[in-house]
Automatic annotation (TrEMBL):
Its EC number is 2.6.99.2. This is Pyridoxine 5'-phosphate synthase. GO terms for molecular function: pyridoxine 5'-phosphate synthase activity. It catalyses: 3-amino-2-oxopropyl phosphate + 1-deoxy-D-xylulose 5-phosphate = pyridoxine 5'-phosphate + phosphate + 2 H2O + H(+). It comes from the Bacteria. 1-deoxy-D-xylulose 5-phosphate binds at D9, H10, R45, H50, T100. Catalyzes the complicated ring closure reaction between the two acyclic compounds 1-deoxy-D-xylulose-5-phosphate (DXP) and 3-amino-2-oxopropyl phosphate (1-amino-acetone-3-phosphate or AAP) to form pyridoxine 5'-phosphate (PNP) and inorganic phosphate.
Length: 238
């Protein structure tokens, strides 16, 4: 059964809407831990639209479970990652104009850049995963970089317009997961997962970790973050 990484970016999104001090993602991490989070995930974007450098620094000092930093393959972020030393870094693609991460990292097209990034992180002793589309060529390229894990982008599955489309996307994820395991990498998944669609992905053989943010923070508005995390954790463990 997969571990649950809780992405708290959107607590910071609410804070940044007013540019003040609340709600504080550091408090959110504490409540998520109390609800059973196995990991706290944050995406430090180059435009600092939600999580800020200050958040990362404080989270590194206060989070008791694993801290997973999502960031782009750019010098600024790699320097921050190597200085901060979270337990894990997940390299993701990033576009200024996107509302959220739109696709996986194109490891095939950006092989040398991703390779240099992975090397810098490994030299700093950090566990590295790559956020990729569930595509065989991307999985094979990731393996060549010796990363510990890949996180399969579940956006196409989560956003599928019909049940039939969603079943097809689930098969794509299942097949890709099989390739990840055959390549002896650790299997993670995430993006767009929610209380209705998570169980089929959690049930994929060999799934070790799911990173989930938006749906948990949305539910927390109504039930509180600790309960929202706990409910999601039950679905992952069921
Ligand atoms: C990489 C990924 O799928 C997401 O966690 C991503 O970090 C989402 O970014 P936002 O939190 O800015 O939507
Ligand atoms: N890597 C995926 C993640 O951290 C959370 O994505 P979402 O649930 O906010 O879409």
């Amino acid at each position: 059964m997969p571990k649950l990484g809780v992405n708290i970016d959107h607590v910071a999104t609410i804070r940044q809407a007013r540019g003040g001090i609340e709600p504080d993602p550091v408090w959110a991490a504490m409540k998520a831990e109390l609800g059973g989070a196995d990991q706290i995930t944050v995406h430090l974007r180059e435009d600092r639209r939600h999580i800020l450098d200050r958040d990362l620094r404080l989270l590194k000092e206060t989070v008791h479970v694993k801290l997973n930093l999502e960031c782009a393959c750019v010098d600024e972020m790699l320097t921050i990652a190597c200085d901060t030393k979270p337990e894990r870094v997940c390299l993701v693609p990033e576009k200024r104009e996107e509302v959220t991460t739109e696709g996986g990292l194109d490891v095939v097209a950006n092989f040398d850049r991703v390779s240099d990034s992975v090397k810098r992180l490994h030299d700093a002793g950090i566990f590295v995963s790559l956020f990729i589309d569930p595509v065989e060529s991307q999985i094979a390229a990731s393996k060549k970089l010796n990363v510990e894990a890949v996180e399969l982008h579940t956006g196409s599955y989560a956003d599928a317009p019909t049940d039939l489309d969603q079943s097809r996307e689930l098969i794509v994820l299942e097949n890709a997961s099989q390739h990840v395991l055959e390549h002896q990498m650790i299997l993670h998944a995430g993006h767009g997962l929610n209380y209705l669609n998570v169980t089929d992905v959690a049930d994929i053989e060999g799934m070790e970790e799911l990173n989930i943010g938006h749906s948990i923070i949305s539910r927390a508005v109504f039930v509180g973050l600790e309960d929202a995390v706990s409910e999601m954790k039950q679905l992952c463990l069921r």
